[in-house]
Amino acid sequence: MLHLNSSRSISDPSDPDARLTANNGEYLVNISLGTPPFPIVAIADTGSDIIWTQCKPCTDCYKQDAPLFDPKSSSSYRTVSCSSNACNSLQSEGSSCSSDGSVCEYQVSYGDQSHTQGDVAAETLTLESKTGNPVALPKTVIGCGHDNAGTFSPKGSGIVGLGGGPASLVSQLGSSIGGKFSYCMVPYAAAKPTSTMNFGTNAVVSGNGVLSTPLISDPSQPTFYFLQLEAVSVGSKKIAFQGSSIGGSGNIIIDSGTTLTLVPTDFFSQLSDAVETQVTGGTKTSDPEGFFSLCYVPDSSLKLPPVTAHFKGADVVLTSDNIFIQVNDKVVCLAFYANDQLSIYGNVAQQNFLIGYDLPKQTLSFKPTDCTNT
After folding, report:
1. 142 in Cβ contact with 55 (< 8 Å)
2. Which distant-in-sequence residues (6+ apart) come within 8 Å of 141 by Cβ?
3. Which residue among 66, 80, 152, 158 is buried most deeply as judged by most CB within 10 Å?
4. Burial grade of 9 (CB within 10 A; 0-12, 13-18, 19 or more)
5. pLDDT score for 208
6. Which residues are within 8 A (CB) of 241 and not within 5 positions of it... i.e. 6 or more apart?
7. Catalytic-labelled residue, pool 218, 255, 321, 358
8. Active-site residue, from 45, 49, 218, 321
9. Is the pLDDT at 159 greater than 50, yes or no?
10. Confidence (pLDDT) at 170
């Protein structure tokens, strides 16, 4: 029996956790797959569901630094049949049958045109815990990717989906974590690039400075965690936010797997103009790559206006690390980008906040935190 989207208990009394590492626009999470456990480093992505890694044999794989996962070396690896509940539950992930009808296959494309396809399997996934004892999760449904390409870094070997759909790690952990997880993302340039992702009771965000806003689900898009962003203030100028017209009352998704914050073109123009008008000192420059529209040479005279994201019930004060991204040693650029499809609150805006998801209570909490200490 496959435990897709089911409640199950974890035998270890400690709640699981995982190391999170900043890596040039993304955050990599450490897990293990198989028996014996084989270490995997993959993108932590709240904007997708399926857990997948590149697998031997590769039809077409991108270059990765670490060895490929070999299912033949794991005694617990099992492919999933086309008639299984797991295969049926992965229809949103493009599940289909192999040519001989024996194995369930998946195919996923991402917003940046990256893709993965391969076999659906049941495998033991292992996480760490604060006691040092590993937490093994048998029969976790994963994707064993044989054809993978796109913008993937060689430091990672796949994606750990943390979205709201049935195939995600969060959903497969089920009631054992009480629908709670949290993370704290260090700035990309931090001297200590690692922090911890917590699941269960250790993921509760509490204490002074905590701000909470409703988590809004859209049944037609169960993967995404929608928030309601009402406005963004730049200094004394408050700019109303409309955002995406999908997601019910939610108008922006929070996504650990997207670097920049994506907003509609009209809003971006107002935001960019407000920031440019209120910045003092520094020298305005152009992006060497021609991608960003508002960039500066970050000398000591550069002073940025205060910027606040006004979510429903939570006024989140952003720092310079959340507003600007360093594109090279001499240039920083506004970490927002115009996009009229789906509005996304990206990971630059989330840096140095402890961010907690409480799915039963349907709340998301922000707590300003030095993430290098977590």
Report:
1. no
2. 2, 3, 4, 51, 80, 86, 90, 120, 121, 122, 167, 172
3. 158
4. exposed
5. 95
6. 229, 230, 231, 232, 251, 252, 263, 267, 310
7. 255
8. 45
9. yes
10. 97
Q: Percent of the chain having pLDDT more than 90?
A: 79
H-helix segments, 82-239 = 85-89, 169-173
* Residue given tokens 């994606």 in the structure block: 159
Look up residue 291 and give its amino acid.
Answer: F
Strand partners, 96: 105
pLDDT tens-digit profile of 66-78? 999 999 999 999 9
CA distance 107 to 99: 14
Cα–Cα separations (whole angstroms), residue 13 to 34, 136, 177, 340? 21, 12, 11, 46
Q: What is the pLDDT of residue 295?
A: 96
Q: Are 286 and 264 in contact (CB under 8 A)?
A: no
Residue 248 has what pLDDT?
A: 67
Residue 247 has pLDDT above 70, yes or no: no
The whole-number pLDDT of residue 171 equals 96
User: For residue 362, which of 249, 221, 213 has the smallest C-alpha distance?
Assistant: 213
Q: Which helix (H) or strand (E) holds 197?
A: strand 194-199
Give this prediction's pTM. 0.93
Quick check: is 255 catalytic? yes
